[in-house]
């Protein structure tokens, strides 16, 4: 296992070393300053403002900012829904796939607009290249940009000395796409292609194998989508098996590149925050809190997977490692990734809201499967989604400040601003909406026949699948215990006879939309409320939020809130399986 | 109300503009550059024999139990590269446990005639578990070393020669650090066929 721990440690060191550079760069982009890409990108940016008739310097208060986001997301949703529903008459559809049914399209449109990328469909058997590019790739970019834009606005609110303006959403949207997401994606896509990730518009190719079989290679413009899928913590795979497919992720190098792409923006944004509020220690304190929780998650899932599963032990399969064999639970894992890289990936994609997978999560061990559930159960604040992770974490910071204030009997304050009743109420709304949605949706799904028809595995694993489905959708993650079904797809030309489950697709779609936009609006409202507050100078009695004590307290609050909410649910599913050797 | 109407107009223009840029220009330019600079990789790293495509070096295939070939890992999808899915059976699934037992028995039955001392406890875990993609192109080195005895005997090649070929077609870790080593089964089998033809 030593080799595995070294891989993980080196990865974390590389990530941490990159954080100040990327975080500093994003701060400049947020402030509208000139950066090294300005000579190339500047003209496109100005063109965008001209056609959109936007004046970037025109500030919006939190309500106007939130309204622009909701309207933009609504228009995005309608556009994507329309594209999904009219696939059969569009170009670039070499396999002749039919249009999506209404309920599946509702789920998919909601999923991609909310940066969730939950997929009931299988990419290579359902969607044309046109839909993958024009529909999904676009939403991979812009839904990520919306999350980052909200964070930019929230940071401005925290940092503001006066006034109510949080920035201009349209300008943030354009700048984040043009200066951050697009250039990194373009370079990353080419790096991925150089290693074997495909990028072509040719249709699938069938040939005879050397053993006299036939095999068909599904092809497509994968690399361009793969890059932004990771960078925007989206996670929706071009292929049904996502980043386990060699054409999405062919080796150890691409796996590392993709993991870095997933974490680099959410991790760097902590630095951006510190820089913009004028307290870099504060940024690093948040980074430290996130990193500490992340390291625990990786360690637990790695140890659990290396131990192997009861199904293996009952069958007499050797699960210990020896020279030339990884050992461990290799069911649903790829040899080139082994246990360490699959475990690292599972933790990275569930602490962030990426949701891409390079192994089958349904086949993880009980405790191994508990980790991604628990990661999401924190509300995706451990790095989390791009932008959304940090603005959600800032709500937890205010909650922690409030609780600490109660304990020492002082008025809570953060960055010199008093945290009062209005902010605390909004924080509670933001923090509680998502877990409530998870629990209600799961209860509904396991208590009704319409819900249970989606379940694939017997016993506690069936409950875990249901819980995972709504946990993932509510936290806008998108990974799955993929036995959970919402779309039945016979292998017929053009998807003849395919059928979606209305219950699963509609409930999931509504959950994704509510859980994305309600906390987002709450966070903007908090920022709007803080923007106009006077900054009091720090005194000797000030409880510092950039201290190690605070980091420990923050972790405590995050863990306690998640544990109090989900402990019973976790016990019923993954924990039962982790504690027993019994087969079901 | 005025603000709402203005937002609707701006949003509509924005989504059209961004779609042209991110949904059309970006993937097409990426495709163009990729096809120009990495033509083989961007089209699926296909492998040809006598001018005919026989596979992709990144995609595992079924060698149908033929004794002269190294065999890929079990697949939940019959090695489909156009309809992919996971096995999706949970860690405490009886069905999965029975599947492992079957795979283990089949592996021992196939290899024992060439390696009489082979014990169940020596079979590496990748040989009896389904991969995630269903088309894992690799097997572990331990798995290849066991299968090498059979392939060498059936083909009448010295075992050392076969094991040398296994080493040659092992994809190592990136920077000797990231990922796990794996033996590329298709490339290895093609090399063996070339060896025979000599």
Task: Tell me what you see in this structure.
The complex is a heterodimer of chains A (584) and B (198). Chain A has helices at residues 2-31, 38-52, 62-85, 102-113, 123-126, 129-159, 169-194, 222-231, 252-276, 280-307, 310-314, 338-351, 366-377, 388-408, 421-447, 449-452, 460-474, 502-531, 548-579; strands spanning 205-208, 214-217, 413-414, 417-418, 487-488, 499-500. Chain A is mostly helical and 584 residues long. Chain A has one domain (2-565). In chain A, α6 (129-159) packs parallel to α18, α14 packs across α18 (502-531) and α17 (460-474) packs antiparallel against α19 (548-579). The longest helix of chain A is centred in the last third of the chain and has 32 residues, at 548-579. Chain A is globular and about 75 Å long. Chain B folds into two domains: 2-40; 44-197, no CATH class. In chain B, the strands form two sheets. In chain B, strands 3-5-4 form a three-stranded antiparallel beta sheet. Chain B is elongated and about 85 Å long. Chains A and B meet through α1, α2, α3, α6 and α7 of A and α1, β2, α3, β3 and α4 of B.
Largest sheet of chain B: 3 strands, antiparallel
Helix-strand string of chain B: HHEEHEHHEEH
> In oligomeric terms, what are we looking at?
heterodimer
Name the strands of the widest sheet of chain B in spatial order: 3-5-4
- Compute the average pLDDT of chain A: 96
| Low-pLDDT residue spans of chain A | none
Mind telling me the C-alpha Rg of chain A?
Answer: 23 Å
The structural domain count of chain A equals 1
Beginning-to-end CA distance, first to last residue of chain B: 81 Å
E-strand count of chain A: 6
**Count of helical stretches of chain B:** 6
| Total domain modules of chain B | 2
Mean pLDDT of chain B: 96
Termini separation of chain A comes to 30 Å
- Helix-strand makeup class of chain A: mainly alpha
Indicate the structural class of chain B. mainly alpha
Q: How does the major sheet of chain A shape up? A: 2 strands, antiparallel
């Amino acid at each position: 296992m030593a080799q595995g721990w070294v891989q993980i440690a080196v990865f974390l060191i590389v990530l941490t070393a990159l954080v100040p550079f990327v975080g500093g760069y994003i701060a400049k982009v947020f402030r509208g300053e000139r950066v090294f890409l300005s000579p190339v990108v500047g003209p496109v940016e100005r063109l965008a403002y001209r056609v959109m008739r936007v004046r970037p310097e025109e500030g919006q208060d939190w309500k106007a900012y939130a309204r622009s986001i909701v309207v933009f997301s609504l228009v995005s949703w309608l556009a994507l829904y329309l594209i999904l529903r009219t696939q059969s008459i569009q170009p670039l559809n070499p396999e002749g796939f039919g249009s999506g049914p209404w309920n599946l399209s509702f789920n998919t449109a909601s999923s991609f607009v909310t940066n969730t990328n939950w997929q009931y469909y299988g990419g290579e058997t359902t969607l044309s290249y046109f839909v993958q590019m024009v529909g999904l790739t676009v939403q991979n970019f812009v839904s990520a940009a919306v999350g980052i834009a909200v964070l930019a606005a929230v940071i401005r609110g925290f940092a503001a000395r006066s006034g109510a303006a949080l920035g201009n959403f349209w300008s943030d949207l354009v700048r984040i796409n043009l200066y951050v997401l697009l250039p990194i994606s373009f370079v990353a896509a080419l790096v991925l292609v150089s290693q074997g990730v495909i990028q072509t518009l040719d249709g699938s190719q069938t040939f005879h194998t050397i053993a006299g079989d036939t095999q068909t290679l599904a092809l497509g413009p994968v690399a361009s989508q793969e890059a932004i899928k990771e960078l925007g913590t989206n996670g929706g795979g071009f292929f049904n098996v996502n980043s386990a497919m060699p054409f999405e992720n062919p080796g150890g190098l691409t796996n590392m590149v993709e993991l870095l792409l997933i974490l680099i923006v959410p991790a760097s944004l902590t630095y951006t925050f510190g820089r913009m509020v004028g307290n870099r220690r504060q940024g690093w304190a948040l980074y430290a809190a996130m990193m500490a929780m992340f390291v625990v998650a990786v360690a637990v899932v790695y140890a659990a997977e290396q131990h192997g599963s009861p199904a293996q032990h009952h069958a007499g399969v050797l699960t210990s490692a020896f020279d030339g064999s990884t050992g461990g639970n290799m069911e649903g894992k790829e040899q080139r990734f082994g246990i360490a890289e699959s475990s690292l990936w599972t933790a990275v994609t569930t602490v962030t809201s990426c949701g891409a997978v390079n192994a089958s999560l349904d086949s993880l061990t009980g405790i191994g499967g508990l980790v991604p559930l628990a990661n999401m159960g924190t509300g995706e604040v451990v790095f989390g989604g791009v932008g959304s992770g940090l603005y959600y974490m800032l709500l937890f910071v205010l909650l922690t400040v409030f609780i600490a204030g109660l304990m020492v009997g002082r008025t809570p304050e953060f960055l010199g601003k008093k945290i009062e009743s209005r902010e605390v109420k909004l924080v509670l709304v933001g923090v509680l909406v998502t877990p409530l949605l998870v629990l209600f949706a799961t209860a509904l799904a396991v208590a009704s026949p319409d819900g249970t028809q989606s379940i694939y595995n017997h016993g506690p694993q069936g409950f875990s699948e249901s819980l995972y489905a709504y946990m993932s959708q509510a936290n806008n993650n998108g990974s799955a215990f993929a036995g959970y079904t919402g779309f039945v797809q016979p292998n017929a030309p053009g998807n003849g006879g395919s059928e979606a489950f209305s219950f699963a697709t509609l409930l999931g779609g509504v959950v994704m939309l509510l859980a994305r936009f309600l906390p987002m609006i709450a966070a903007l409202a908090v920022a709007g409320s803080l923007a106009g507050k006077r900054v009091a100078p720090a005194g000797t009695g000030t409880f510092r939020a950039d201290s190690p004590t605070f980091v420990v307290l923050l972790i405590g609050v995050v863990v306690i809130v998640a544990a109090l909410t989900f402990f019973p649910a976790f016990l019923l599913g993954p924990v039962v399986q982790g504690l027993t050797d019994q087969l079901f | 109300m005025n603000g709402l109407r203005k937002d609707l107009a701006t949003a509509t223009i924005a989504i059209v503009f961004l779609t042209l840029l991110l949904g059309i220009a970006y993937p097409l330019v990426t495709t163009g550059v990729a096809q120009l600079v990495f033509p083989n990789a961007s089209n699926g790293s296909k492998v040809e024999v006598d001018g005919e495509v026989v596979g992709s070096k990144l995609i595992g295939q079924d060698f149908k139990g033929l004794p002269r070939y190294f065999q890929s890992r079990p697949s939940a999808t019959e090695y489909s590269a156009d309809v992919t899915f996971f096995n999706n059976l949970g860690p405490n699934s009886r069905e999965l446990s029975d599947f492992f037992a079957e795979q283990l028995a089949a592996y021992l039955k196939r290899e024992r005639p060439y390696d009489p001392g082979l014990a169940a406890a020596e079979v590496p875990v990748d040989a009896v578990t389904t991969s995630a993609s269903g088309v894992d192109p690799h097997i572990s080195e331990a798995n290849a070393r066991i299968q090498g005895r059979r392939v060498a005997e059936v083909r009448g090649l010295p075992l050392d020669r076969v094991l040398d070929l296994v080493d040659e077609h092992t994809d190592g870790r990136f920077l000797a650090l990231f990922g796990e080593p794996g033996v590329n089964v298709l490339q290895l089998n093609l090399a063996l066929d070339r060896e025979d033809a000599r």
